[in-house]
Predict the 3D structure of the following.
Amino acid sequence: MKKFAQDFKVTGNTRLNKRHFILELQAPVPLPEILPGQFVQVLVHNSPSTFLRRPFSIHFVDYAKNTLSLLVQVKGEGSRHMGMLNPGDKLNLVYPLGNSFSLPSAGKLLLVGGGAGVAPLMFMGDVLNKKGVRPDFLLGFRSADEVSQVDEYSRYGKVYLSTDDGSMGEKGFVTQNPVICQSPLPYDRIFCCGPDAMMHAVAKLAAGKGVACEVSLENYMACGYGVCLCCITPTDKGNERVCIEGPVFETSRLQW
Amino acid sequence: MKKFAQDFKVTGNTRLNKRHFILELQAPVPLPEILPGQFVQVLVHNSPSTFLRRPFSIHFVDYAKNTLSLLVQVKGEGSRHMGMLNPGDKLNLVYPLGNSFSLPSAGKLLLVGGGAGVAPLMFMGDVLNKKGVRPDFLLGFRSADEVSQVDEYSRYGKVYLSTDDGSMGEKGFVTQNPVICQSPLPYDRIFCCGPDAMMHAVAKLAAGKGVACEVSLENYMACGYGVCLCCITPTDKGNERVCIEGPVFETSRLQW
Amino acid sequence: MQFKNPVTTASGCFGYGEEFKDFYDLGLLGGIFVKAVTGSNRDGNKYPRMAETPSGMLNSVGLQNKGVDHFCSSIYPRLKDFNTQVIVNVSGSTIEEYVKVAERINELEGIHAIELNISCPNVKEGGMAFGVVPATATEVTKAVREVYKKVLMVKLSPNVTNISEMAKAVADGGADVLTLINTLLGMAIDAETQKPVISTITGGLSGPAIKPIALRMVWQVFRAVKLPIVGLGGIMNATDAIEFMLAGASVVQVGTANFIDPMVCPKIIDGINDYLDRHNIAAAQDIIGALKVC
Amino acid sequence: MQFKNPVTTASGCFGYGEEFKDFYDLGLLGGIFVKAVTGSNRDGNKYPRMAETPSGMLNSVGLQNKGVDHFCSSIYPRLKDFNTQVIVNVSGSTIEEYVKVAERINELEGIHAIELNISCPNVKEGGMAFGVVPATATEVTKAVREVYKKVLMVKLSPNVTNISEMAKAVADGGADVLTLINTLLGMAIDAETQKPVISTITGGLSGPAIKPIALRMVWQVFRAVKLPIVGLGGIMNATDAIEFMLAGASVVQVGTANFIDPMVCPKIIDGINDYLDRHNIAAAQDIIGALKVC
Ligand SMILES: Cc1cc2nc3c(=O)[nH]c(=O)nc-3n(C[C@H](O)[C@H](O)[C@H](O)COP(=O)(O)OP(=O)(O)OC[C@H]3O[C@@H](n4cnc5c(N)ncnc54)[C@H](O)[C@@H]3O)c2cc1C
Ligand SMILES: Cc1cc2nc3c(=O)[nH]c(=O)nc-3n(C[C@H](O)[C@H](O)[C@H](O)COP(=O)(O)OP(=O)(O)OC[C@H]3O[C@@H](n4cnc5c(N)ncnc54)[C@H](O)[C@@H]3O)c2cc1C
Ligand SMILES: Cc1cc2nc3c(=O)[nH]c(=O)nc-3n(C[C@H](O)[C@H](O)[C@H](O)COP(=O)(O)O)c2cc1C
Ligand SMILES: Cc1cc2nc3c(=O)[nH]c(=O)nc-3n(C[C@H](O)[C@H](O)[C@H](O)COP(=O)(O)O)c2cc1C
Ligand code: FES
Ligand code: FES
């Protein structure tokens, strides 16, 4: 699959809440086909303390506007700088990177996301809808003030909410949400992206109930395109590269 | 003399021509007394390739507006970034640094500047005027399109111009300008700031005609406040620090 | 051995080249130094394997590769028709392992040179141990020289008191070309968790941070030993590459920079040509060791 | 010997302290390591003496100072009442010179320690030569130990294959404290003029670029030798300082960072206190060598 390193133009920077914002980025040439679960490597110019690129999942693709969006959580220097970008600014991306979620054209699917890990699920919902599948979403947030975009997700499927403090939706971790606690679990496949602990918990729960599960890992990356071997995770085939063989893995294959 | 490291606010960025611009910077607290010939050390944030501060002469001080100005020539990354600053942006300065030109309260004085080296002469003219002295200016530029601020200098004294290509004023180096070629030279003291070659030529000419001469050196600096010993120049007292004992030196003392 | 231009890619920073086909035509490159190959399969070190540092990074990959048999049977066939020089980075833990790998690579018609990696700081036994003691460096070079009939490059470790002495040691062992430098041994700590950032605690420092050290070593070795030098360490652009050539490198390698900009090598090739034009210099080789020191 | 806090300033990056009085009260500092003092006047190296590098700088000052007599008669009287520890960095080209300087400084009541600089890369004879060979390092330390009765610190060069071995060598010579690291030998070239940037061609690399190497060396020496360590190399902020302490440094020095921000030392002192509060740690010394390696 051909990959590109190009200057995108910032066409929008929308703050969702204190720690999260969405960057809309317009490509300089028509976008190639992009798959849900793929990511980009962002070059954070103008930041003396960010030497390497920063990986971010593709949150949404709008081929008509020729844009892709990133949902970014402010963590350190790199994400902080990205948050200060204004429409018209340039941002260099290497893309599209990684494999993708599997894309069933039938079946009952549950998309589970937590925090900034919800990022790839919007695009996933869109693509599934286009294939004629309406998934359910189970989204976890810290608290009500971080819950956002529920309306947008609702367009693609039914949304279940959890918050750590119970200020909106169910209280507690996503794995405590009734929708995922049902037995038998009425889903054919779970797709999960979020903090490591959450992905482990969901994977375990799914395995216990005999439901297939895919997770999108967020290992530290140097290159993002398979040449440095820094991002590996142990699988049934030995150490595999999260940036090439992943970021999406069938949890049954992982030894984490 | 007390020194400060403070965030200034950009209140103006005026382009003079392709390679030069003037930054007006407002201090966060009332400015201390500043002397002509002194300089600041600028921290160029947001530039991954500028690690050290960049020294710039103080071009003008407006105590009423609580601002100081820098006249900057674009050379590399640091000056390029400074040129992109907008009103409201912050710029961290260490100031006021270095000694100053001598400030005679009488006599016929000639202020000679070339290129960005004219920078400190505007402030010098202002301070001399306040002491009741109207100096003459001899300013050298590459060509007519780099000649600027002649009206401003004219407020403080008579202005003689040279351009390398003769497109305005006299053709050739400042040392070929009739005003400085007179014999005997009707000045009590010459103050010079500009490219190394120009300062050498002016110093030699002045020495030949028995006129005292001060130059402002632009050596490479790491600290700017006397502690690294990187900026030295050999003088009659051994290696002296250009950032503390200078940047202004009586040419008779220099062994350059 | 001919390189069509002096810009090549550093081992461990370009995989086996294939991933970069997605970005540009590999035929543009002077050469490709592929990832380390060892006697048998190695899983490499545990995750996390990298840390970002000021103008650089630490890595501790630990020579992950599937071994020389797999290289010859499965990887070589995909590389052999690349329209550029492919050089194999040969690693090991014992002299026997180096020799075994070199012997096997010697059989591969399309490979005209190996780069003996006696400088990897990220494996417990072997690796760097061979590259910091002159006598052992001579010994391993000699042993490989006996079985390897084509161009033998040896990649030196910068983690030494006297780089010229090491260069002489491998020259004595029969090296044809010297590559310098490999990574400097460094460490990163996460102050919040109070733990090392990478699993092996220490790792190899690369990137622009090390460029001044690499340049100095290239210059020292250029004056001490009369062998061609492949220079690297922190090259990010054409100016950096030219500096290494002025210091004495005949060819340069670009490593970490490939992670920041996958298009960096073609850009460096263009930039060197611009520089030569601008300075009226006929060919890149005219600037090798041309530093004006007076 | 007591420091009121672990933040001190590195030799050659803080003059004799006086210039910083224009910025803040020197009494805030844990200590000040003043510029190198040699046996007699030295003009130092020719201009240019510095080059900017990625996240760092090269310097080649070459121990410019007016000699120990001038230090004792003219500088010491101005330093002796600073409300902080003042440590003199003692340099030389011969063992005799080191001994002579140490003897003179020993007489100064207000100075409780010297730092023996056997690691300056910027002078032809002496300096680093003493710091890269274990036997000579032991010898010079021993000689100074005989005449110097207070706290003897020895500052090590990072330009060695085995830093622990050097640390042991000076410990054997009688050092009380180890300072590490001095600068790494580097080089900068101006591609346009094709000349070296600094007059001595090579110079000493400092700043954040070298932090990973410095941290690694502190950690290695902490485990190898049971002497207190003064750690430095690229410390720019409180987090960096804490990393050095976790790796094993009892005290840190801040060098190049003083050029970027003259207020950096007070900020680091505050930052360390914030960190200790936030992590519920009673005192800075509780994090010395507390790196969690499991
Ligand atoms: C394939 C992939 C997809 C990702 N998608 C998204 C996304 O859609 N939205 C989003 O907000 N974040 C995403 N991340 C995480 C994102 O890359 C990091 O948050 C970002 O790199 C931090 O950069 P920084 O400069 O802001 O912080 P830094 O200063 O680099 O680090 C701040 C903190 O974040 C941690 N951190 C740094 N890099 C990573 C990383 N790669 N993974 C996890 N933690 C890290 C550090 O340990 C540190 O504690 C993704 C990561 C990967 C590998
Ligand atoms: C006391 C003093 C006062 C100065 N006043 C002014 C002023 O009023 N206006 C102005 O435009 N410039 C002035 N300079 C020069 C200015 O500091 C440099 O042009 C600037 O630091 C270049 O930074 P850069 O990042 O743009 O370029 P860099 O990328 O650092 O360098 C670009 C080119 O400029 C040269 N250069 C870098 N630093 C210096 C320096 N300190 N002196 C001379 N050449 C240098 C380099 O060799 C290189 O060729 C002054 C310098 C000193 C020491
Ligand atoms: C992730 C990574 C992996 C590396 N793997 C190898 C290797 O397998 N063999 C080798 O000789 N050098 C290896 N190196 C060292 C590089 O080839 C190179 O010597 C070093 O990174 C300095 O160059 P640079 O600053 O341009 O990256 C590796 C470097 C990195 C960053
Ligand atoms: C300009 C300059 C001058 C220095 N002079 C000395 C010196 O006289 N004696 C000494 O032991 N170290 C000297 N050093 C080395 C520093 O003390 C310190 O070891 C080194 O810079 C690494 O620390 P840093 O990265 O915090 O600067 C000097 C460093 C610089 C940058
Ligand atoms: S990040 Fe380099 S191989 Fe995955
Ligand atoms: S620039 Fe540091 S002493 Fe002058």
In short: The mean pLDDT of chain C is 95. DSSP finds nine helices and 14 strands in chain C. Residues B 222, 228, 230; D 10-13, 35-36, 59, 61, 63, 89, 117, 120, 155, 182-183, 206-207, 210, 232-235, 254-257 surround flavin mononucleotide (ligand 4) (CB under 6 Å). Chain C touches chain B at residues 55 (CB under 8 Å).
